[in-house]
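Next up, a specimen:

>
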Amino acid sequence: MTVDRTHANIYAQGLARLASVLALALALPIPSSSLFGADDAASSHASKIRQTAVQTPIASDTGAQVGRAKESKGSGRGQLVEELERLPNLNVRPDTEEATEHRPHGAKLLEVMPGVTKFSELANNPILNKPVAKETVDGYQVATYQSPTLPDATIQIIGANDLVEAIMINLNEPRSESDARKAFEQEIKDVRPIWVPDEIGNFREVFPEKGIAFVLEKGDIPGLPSNRVIQIVAETVKCEYFIMRAEQDLQTNYTHARDDAEHALLHDPNAPGAHWILAQTHLAVGDCANARKHIFKAIKLNDSLPQFHLTYIDVLIQAGEAASALRYMDAVRDSFVEHPLFAIEAVCLDSVLRRESASADYDGAISQGQRALKMLQTLYDAKPKADVLLAAKKLELRTNLSVAIAVARKSWKNPKDQEKAFEWLEAASEVAQEIDKLRSEESQLPTAQIDVYQAALEVGLEMPDALQIDSYAQKARASAELYLRKTLDEVSAASVRWRAGNALMNASRIYDARKDSKQAIAAGVKGLEYIQVTTDYRPAVERAIAGLSQLQLGMIYANGGVEAEAFKLFDQANELFSQIESDLRARDASRVGVPLATVASLYWKNGKREQAVDTLKRAVTFLEKGHEAGYVKDAQLYVPYSNLSTMCKGLKNTADAAKYKALADQYAPKK
């Protein structure tokens, strides 16, 4: 019997080649055309399927076009990682806990389980004890069998270091994919497969949890496989397949993406791509602490990928650390130059950075936003493929929203120019409609309009009397409730609660400014409910937004004379802030300080004098932290210091009264 050297060599060479590109392959799924040769049928890259071959798009050369496939040795974890370590206020370092051991394994075929069964044990296998041939190919052990039960097939078992790596059933005549599925019905039940293409036109339909793959024959349509199986493979479960599927799921289902990334880390705790995906899912729900932990580790493991750096910058922005984000952007800016989409994303983030910095540069934010939109138009003129187009549209949406907020916040010579923010919002809404149409039918993600509603209610804070605001507030609540009633994607549901919660709290502030307490309370109650659901499980410092929302809603109740409800919320918020007094970040501290100082005055007026002093001291601590970072102006410290001096004097604490009087004089308005 002649050994099927073709398949043996394919597998052996594929494994050997895989080792050389593993660092990049595990970091991020990329097209096979950029990394693997025609002899690498056993290892390439994937596109998830849930439909038949003809109905489903496959992996393409998109990654090469947007720069994802550029292979780089990186900086050897050198300069950029050192820059990470130097950044102030990161509050995160790589995990030091030992990973739980998780031994890779595949499905059991013919009583052999890849990753578990030893090659030497095959001699005791009742079915596989008599190979027709045995040899070593490039250091891999290969045993070939001819089974009476499969007369038209050759079975090959491939191992290394006395451990079975794969079982390959080479069919002399193609079988239908449905027949192959029936043969493994129990093994692949409820497993979502992905497609792994190679350069010679074949595809592997891979079932990641089981390590089973069907190699499909070329189809009649170029770039699509047939439904005819020419080889069946069972191999050790590989983390990269979970990462491939997870990246696909970022476009359809965040819960699936999170679960696959976590599963990948069971097989390899140091897979940077898995950490990057988890950073994305945590950031989607406003969990900056965990997002930062994962993206920091991803960069420590592989600092050559631009998308890792962009995600890190985004995390820093959303965590309120614009100064750190700007410093990091300057350190890595050159890495985006050769990658069109990443270069555009960097300009978009630069627009957001300028807007959110302590010394906000609204003109710069608007200018950078307009620049990003021109770059996007150039990309559109090149007629990009579907996945690039979708990614570009998401950047266009974010850019329009960034400019809208900057326009609303800027002081204009002509006040009517501020109203142009609504034109930017309308443009963003049109892009959101395009994004919703571009998403696949499988998508469990919410409408992209949620982003528009959230930004619109930030704009409304600058123009509370604008007529458009009521419509945006109503749509934000209705869209969130509709989505939450039907979705099965728990991570995306948390994301909607987070974004809608923030939007409705802004709506509450707008209605309060209008003296419409009924609407303000209704929006605030629902907004606080959403925010608490998404923050209750986080560390205390990550719940600051919930405490701030409690202060805000409590103020509205107090203004309406509902004091019992108001002080209940004040006490809850005050307890939270007492726990995180030393850990609260500068931007959050500046946002909390002013309302907390107002609450202290209400405590004082209601006879809760000691509680008032404790609360005002805490508020002053927060304001000082914000002042040091540039978020709080000198004048904003004068009144709290003056009030604290008066309160301490009332409690006959003359030393503190004198101390705070001196501080108040230091920041007193100049006559």
